[in-house]
Amino acid sequence: MQCWKCGAELKNMLLLFSRNEEFGKCRADLHACLGREYYDSAFSDSCREDRADFTLDKDKAKFCDSFTVHIQACRHKDNAPARKARVALAEKFGEDLPADNVDSIQAAQTEADRALVELERLVGERE
């Protein structure tokens, strides 16, 4: 099993996560929509479960009777289509391509997440 947020392997975890279960390395809520088997961004509420309640924060812990862990839950978002569309629009209107703020923010967050994981690896996992 892997964490839906950082992709690290979940070791010594009970398979039935409690609602408040948190992964120690990246502090991700494990009982969240992004870590469940039925999560699918192609569906209207990003969930293939018909009876699931609407959830705005997909990365936060929630009550879900049908929660099943997705073994390979880590999904890396591909921003290439959005980047390509911005380039095409900038060329069409003769504008300079603006700095990619969305990608730079995501990269900074990802870098911060990596730094936190590395720091906790060096210092030791907190119990």
Entry summary:
The protein has 127 residues and is an all-alpha fold.
**Largest β-sheet summary:** none
Helix content: 25-40%
Helix count, per DSSP? 2
- Taking the alpha carbons of the first and last residues, their distance comes to 20 Å
Strand content: under 5%
Question: How is this structure best described in words?
Answer:
- The protein has 127 residues and is mostly helical.
- The protein has one domain.
- 28% of the residues lie in helices and 0% in strands.
- It is built from two helices and no strands.
- The longest helix is centred in the C-terminal third of the chain and has 23 residues, at 101-123.
- The chain is flat and about 55 Å long.
- The chain starts with 79 loop residues before the first helix and ends with a helix.
- The relative contact order is 0.17.
Per-chain topology:
Layout: H1 80-92, H2 101-123
Keywords:
mainly alpha, 28% helix, 127 residues
